[in-house]
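tl;dr need the bound structure. longer version: we got a ligand (adenosine-5'-triphosphate) that a collaborator sent over and nobodys looked at where it sits. i said id run it. heres the input, straight from their email, havent touched it
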Amino acid sequence: MDRSDIYTVVTENLTKVYRMGKVNVEALRGVDLRVRKGELMAVVGPSGSGKSTLLNLMGALDKPTTGRVFIDGVDVGKLSDFELADLRARKIGFVFQFFNLIHRMNALRNVALPMVFTGVSRREREERAMKLLELVGLRDKWRHRPSELSGGEQQRVAVARALANNPSIILADEPTGNLDTKTGEEIIGMLLKLNKGMGQTIVIVTHEKHVSDVCERIVYLRDGLVEREVVRKT
Ligand SMILES: Nc1ncnc2c1ncn2[C@@H]1O[C@H](COP(=O)(O)OP(=O)(O)OP(=O)(O)O)[C@@H](O)[C@H]1O
Ligand SMILES: [Mg+2]
């Protein structure tokens, strides 16, 4: 299976079982998904339906119980831990609900951090981080630590950080879940611009209809399965 010319991430019959003592939780029960290059996809579904589990597997943050994940044609199950960490750093940009910035680092250093892991020189890291901060409208706040930024600004730093290594895909897990409506719309507007303007492939997990409404494809998860998919004209 290699259609990496068309697909950024492909999942094949993905299952994930969490063992909780004697109880097994079947978080995913066989998910086949293909994310096309340049696609903007929403994943929606009730709480506990497996959205975060799926996103973590798509980004090789976690390993499936059975099934396979291909990222740019690479079967991530065949990689060593070292190769996996390298692939993750180069190809995946994560954006989380609670920003997950490093609190003792200023905005510039937060954005530059992923480039430390890919061997970019300090000078180049700082130049690129500054450009990315400019892209998200925070050039003048590069010195601010997360606690000195609003929630929306922190999420913009997180988006800039996700872009640091020019990833194949951005995976965003409820990126607006912790923001007020207006600020959330700004973040979505930014992701939309990255997708439309730069062709950035993006998957967004969301509970909000106004977010999924801007996506080309909406994947509905229920009880660990894809219940249906809706392709929309945008
Ligand atoms: N680390 C874990 N250990 C055990 N069970 C887990 C773990 N992570 C998730 N689960 C269980 O797996 C199922 C799917 O969880 P998941 O976090 O993927 O749902 P979700 O769709 O993202 O929900 P939400 O909308 O609330 O974020 C749930 O039943 C959850 O309790
Ligand atoms: Mg979740």
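gonna send this back to them w/ a short note. The chain has a mean pLDDT of 95.
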